[in-house]
Write a structure and sequence with these properties.
Elements (H helix, E strand, L loop, with lengths): L7 E6 H11 L13 H15 L10 E5 L7 H5 L17 H11 L3 E3 L6 H14 L3 E5 L13 E5 L4 E3 L1 H8 L6 H8 L14 H11 L2 H6 L7 H9 L1 H11 L21 H11 L2 H11 L15 H6 L1 H5 L9 E2 L3 H14 L1 E8 L9 E9 L2 E6 L22 H13 L4 E4 L2 H9 L8 E3 H9 L7 H9 L7 H4 L13 H28 L3 H8 L2 H11 L1 E3 L1 H26 L8 H11 L17 H7 L5 H24 L7 E2 L2 E3 L9 E3 L11 H4 L5 E2 L4 E8 L2 H9 L3 H8 L4 H10 L8 H16 L3 H8 L3 H14 L1 H17 L1 E3 L5 E3 L9 H32 L5 E6 L3 E7 L3 H13 L14 E6 L2 H4 L1
Parallel strand pairs: 1-2, 1-4, 2-3, 4-5, 7-10, 8-11, 11-12
Antiparallel strand pairs: 5-6, 8-9, 9-10, 13-14, 13-17, 15-16, 18-22, 18-23, 19-20, 21-22
Helix pairs in contact: 1-2, 2-4, 4-12, 7-8, 7-11, 12-13, 16-17, 18-24, 19-22, 19-23, 20-22, 25-28, 27-28, 30-37, 32-33, 33-34, 34-35, 35-36, 37-38
This protein binds a DNA duplex (9 and 16 nucleotides) through helix 26, helix 28, strand 16, helix 33 and helix 34.
Length: about 950
DNA sequence: ACCTTCACG
DNA sequence: GACGTACGTGAAGGTG
């Protein structure tokens, strides 16, 4: 039937449908494999109600279509590049459901329309116009306020959730103006959801008032001078351009070059077989029954899960019941392109895949890819060997690539579109590793989930987050150990020497485990209330860290080498002196031998210690002994040089990558319980700075030609957070006034006026300030300050008297920890404190940890937020972020761009807590520039 | 594999 | 009343 007079078109806002279904319904997964399908089910319900007439009182359609958003980039981004820029990321269990809703629409035999470069709203606007022009009418099935501008003669809206028609009266109620002026009001009021700027300070109410007074937006802007209220007048004059841009953003385009004609959208009866097949595939039992009854055909059978265990038992151990047993013999070895194509097709159909890579090294910058494993269904996984070579027994030790493996280039070319496909979720365990392996081969893995990070977000402080541990804890399965395959010590070999059959069992199981972990952990994120932590603090950091690690930092070998020699010489001199003073030669580096020399031979005072019964010879002991004898002082000097040489000047040289000439650390995102990062291989977070000799090692960290190193660090961030969390007015005011916080503390405590402050008094106050952050004790402070314990306790008492809020904070935090067995940062990160209610000495550690974790953890969260925002903020500048050292970020920047980079990064860092959290104290970032790290810091 | 020591925030 | 104590890390070298 041709569309014309009497025809009625229903335009369904598909994306809105999906989101409403997703948020309105509890998370639901397909029984057989855990695929999230809740939103799909809600979508199908709504769609079925639409086409079957349902329980609605609206007019029945003669024509119908579902409109989707094809992409997030549209012509509006050209008008305003921040359009929709602050949209939160899609929930990870919603993303794979998008392609399924398209499939569902087609299964219902309803036209499914989307167009690259246009939002669904514009397509809807266009069809609404076409419908009325053809003499018919249209109903927009949505409750989105952005569509309300379309309401008018022949066009109304229908809110399917509230079963309510939205016509002119409802629009007037919402906006205070009729549909024809909705755009004007929106342009003024802006929209925080879509990031439409509007006019600052003007909301819906004021906007409607102004439009009603002046008639329309153009008149208002032209006559802005006449507005009586000075602030309003100024805002409109100053932001006229921004308001006009906003209008272009909110105005829907009614002439999108749509391809489907109105006629082609005529309502069609669903093909019952195709529809029921789809519903059965989704395992929607109720819906399948309802629809098959209505269509008068028999419902297809849907297999029930293998075990129909009672509910209580199921809740106790869901993983064991719903998952098939592990069976390494069932894993497939993919040896040709045909088999690989089948796997890729399965993945494209599913919308997600667990991925794992096998390589020749744990160092991603040197590792060669050996094989890839994939899994989309528990118990089913494959391994794709790519670079296995003959075993090590080969006569010349030469690597002969084994037959029966796909050409690596060909395999990667086939996998690349899938790995980069925005609708396919890639699941990994520590996926930063695999992402770097792929990135080195030009493949940008996205989007992704990481089971290690999920575990960290939920269980930090409870256990570690390695795959073996997670598998045993949450899947009750001990993975195949890697040790027997790789050997150890002299006989150790790399994974490419492992036989392909053994490799398949091991590697495919890793993908299988990762998939099952994802299915087990992902739904728990919501229940544990840490989805936000995972999605804003953990997942987005992965590509940022990967980039930093791959860039690495330039280290000058010559500088280090010269230092090593100088240290060696000095050490030799000191060693001779020490032997002379001792009257015998011994290994100065052996605490045991040194203890015997000091305490047995020389008879110095200072007894045994430690559970091993050995003499303690730590720096603090030796410093005390130094007043009695010359030898301990020499040993201290020797130790310092020994440390610098072995840990830094020697070791760092070995870490210079021969290909890049740079040092590539590896950041462990789950290394520290508090949310801090840890740096390994090498650790670049503990490069010396406190002594002059050590500090010079930083001269070896240099910028490349034409560049500078730029260092930006938060000033006193933990004390600022303490002042905020514990709510200490005096401390907060001192930070706001930019005062010296330690001097201020000293002045408050000891009554010394600031202008008479001595360095010694200030030093003591500083120690107390830090002590507070660490969960102060009289003993600890006494040892740190080397004062009698009673004196230290008196300091603490005074401190608590002067700042009673601190004591309150400590008490409340410990109380909270005892009640919940965890503590939280300002951003909701949880750090579990399982020992908090224990007896014994463990409880003491747990108490101090509980006091410290929210402070240290909040600081860690803040710099993480900054780091995830920085790549965007410095986009286009010749600047790279290289290192993070807890409260410091180091960049390498072309000289001409140094000032710009500092300005942008500083702004991001100082505002990193916003908009999630308000802090009553300003965050201050200091910057330094130089040719090397010593100058820059 | 564990302990001690010491480098950093 | 005794116990053992600052918080969070990683690397190197000695020892058993």
């Amino acid at each position: 039937m041709a569309f014309g007079k009497g025809s009625h078109l229903h335009l369904i806002d598909g994306s809105a449908f999906i989101f409403r279904a997703y948020h309105a319904l509890p998370p639901l997964t397909r029984k057989s494999d855990g695929l999230p399908v809740g939103a799909v089910q809600g979508f199908c319900n709504l769609l079925w109600n639409e086409i079957s007439g349902g329980t609605t009182n609206k007019s029945k359609p003669t024509h119908i279509a579902v409109i989707f958003d094809a992409s997030s980039i549209t012509f509006r981004n050209e008008i305003y590049d921040l359009y929709k820029a602050n949209r939160p990321e899609l929930p990870e269990d919603l993303r794979p459901q998008f392609p399924l809703t398209r499939e569902a629409t087609r299964a219902f035999n309803v036209s499914c329309i989307e167009m690259e470069g246009f939002e669904a709203d514009d397509i809807i606007a266009t069809y609404a116009r076409l419908a009325t022009e053809a003499g018919g009418s249209a109903t927009i099935v949505s409750s989105d306020k952005d569509l309300m501008q379309l309401v008018g003669p022949g066009v109304d809206m229908w809110d399917p959730m509230k079963s309510k028609t939205l016509a002119e009266a409802e629009v007037f109620e919402k906006f205070g103006v009729g549909p024809d002026r909705v755009v004007d009001v929106q342009s003024l009021a802006g929209d925080s959801v879509d990031n439409v700027p509007g006019a600052p300070g003007i909301g819906l109410k004021t906007a409607a008032l102004l439009i009603n007074e002046y008639g329309d937006l153009d008149t208002l802007l032209a006559r802005a001078e006449e507005i009586k209220q000075p602030k309003r007048r100024q805002t409109l004059i100053e932001h006229a351009e921004q308001i006009r841009i906003s209008r272009r953003l909110v105005t829907l385009s009614r002439d999108v070059p749509v391809e489907d004609t109105l006629d082609s959208l005529e309502c069609r009866t669903p093909e019952s077989e195709a529809l029921l097949d789809f519903l059965a595939k989704m395992e929607f039992r109720t819906l399948t029954r309802r629809i098959s009854e209505k269509l008068g055909v028999e419902a297809p059978a849907i297999a029930e899960p293998a075990s129909a265990a009672p509910k209580a038992e199921k809740a106790a151990a869901p993983a064991e019941i719903e998952h098939p047993p592990f069976d390494a013999d069932k894993y497939e070895c993919v040896r040709d392109m045909n088999a690989l194509s089948v796997w890729i097709a399965r993945i494209m159909d599913k919308g997600f895949v667990a991925v794992d890579t096998e390589t020749t090294s744990l160092d991603e910058m040197r590792a060669e890819l050996v094989g890839i494993s994939l899994s989309v269904t528990p118990g089913e996984a494959c391994y794709i060997p790519l670079n296995h070579v003959q075993g090590a027994d080969d006569l010349f030790g030469s690597a002969n690539r084994l037959d029966g493996q796909i050409d690596p280039e060909q395999a990667l070319a086939a996998l690349k579109p899938m790995l980069e496909d925005a609708s396919i979720l890639k699941i990994g365990q520590n996926i930063k590793y695999d992402a770097k392996i792929f990135a080195r081969r030009g493949i940008n893995v996205a989007p992704f989930d990481d089971t290690m990070l999920m575990s960290y977000a939920m269980f930090s402080g409870l256990h570690n987050h390695g795959m073996d541990e997670l598998s045993e804890t949450y899947l009750n399965h001990k993975p195949i150990p890697i040790k027997p395959l790789l050997g150890s010590g002299k006989t150790a070999r790399t994974f490419d020497k492992v036989g392909i059959e053994d490799a398949t069992k091991y590697a495919a199981e890793d993908a299988d485990i990762t998939l099952r972990l994802w299915q087990s952990l992902r739904p728990r994120l919501h229940r544990e209330r840490v989805t936000n932590v995972y999605e804003t603090l953990e997942r987005p950091l992965v590509p940022v860290l990967a980039q930093m690690e791959m860039h690495g930092i330039r280290v000058d070998r010559q500088t280090l080498s010269r230092m090593s020699s100088a240290f060696a010489q000095k050490m030799a001199g000191l060693e001779a002196e020490i032997h002379d003073l001792a009257g015998e030669t011994f290994n100065v580096g052996s605490p045991k031998q040194l203890g015997e020399v000091l305490f047995d031979k020389l008879g110095l005072q200072g007894g045994k210690k430690g559970k091993t019964g050995a003499y303690s010879t730590g720096a603090d002991i030796l410093e005390d002994l130094a007043t009695e004898h010359e030898l301990p002082g020499r040993v201290l000097d020797w130790r310092q040089l020994s440390k610098l040489k072995s840990t830094y000047t020697d070791a760092l040289q070995d870490h210079i990558n021969p290909e890049t000439g740079r040092v590539h650390t590896s950041y462990q995102q789950t290394g520290a319980n508090t949310g801090r990062l840890a740096s390994t291989d090498p650790n670049l977070q503990n490069i010396p700075i406190r002594t002059e000799e050590g500090r010079r090692i930083r001269e070896a960290f240099v910028a490349s030609e034409g560049h500078k190193l730029v260092s930006l660090d938060y000033s006193q961030i933990e004390l600022r957070i303490l002042a905020h969390i514990a709510d200490i007015p005096a401390l907060k005011q001192a930070f706001r006034d930019g005062h010296d916080i330690h001097a201020m503390t000293a002045s408050e405590m000891f009554g010394v006026p600031l202008d008479q402050m001595t360095p010694e008094v200030r030093r003591q106050a500083k120690a107390i300030n830090f002590g507070v952050i660490y969960g102060i004790s009289g003993f600890g402070l006494a040892r740190n300050l080397r004062i009698p314990r009673a004196e230290a306790q008196a300091f603490i008492d005074t401190y608590f008297e002067r700042f009673p809020g601190i004591r309150d904070y400590m008490d409340k935090t410990i109380e909270f920890a005892k009640a919940h067995a965890y503590v939280e940062t300002l951003f909701g990160r949880r750090i579990h404190t399982p020992e908090i209610n224990a007896k014994g000495p463990g409880a003491g550690f747990a108490r101090r940890g509980a006091i410290n974790a929210p402070i240290q953890g909040t600081a860690a969260d803040i710099i993480r937020r900054a780091m995830t925002r920085i790549p965007q903020a410095i986009e286009g500048l010749p600047a790279k972020m290289l290192l993070q050292v807890h409260d410091e970020l180091v960049f390498e920047v072309e000289e001409s761009a140094v000032d710009d980079t500092i300005a942008r990064v500083k702004a991001v860092m100082e505002g990193a807590h916003e908009p999630a959290v308000e802090i009553d104290v300003p965050l201050i970032v200091d910057a330094g520039v130089g040719d090397n790290w010593a100058q820059a810091h």
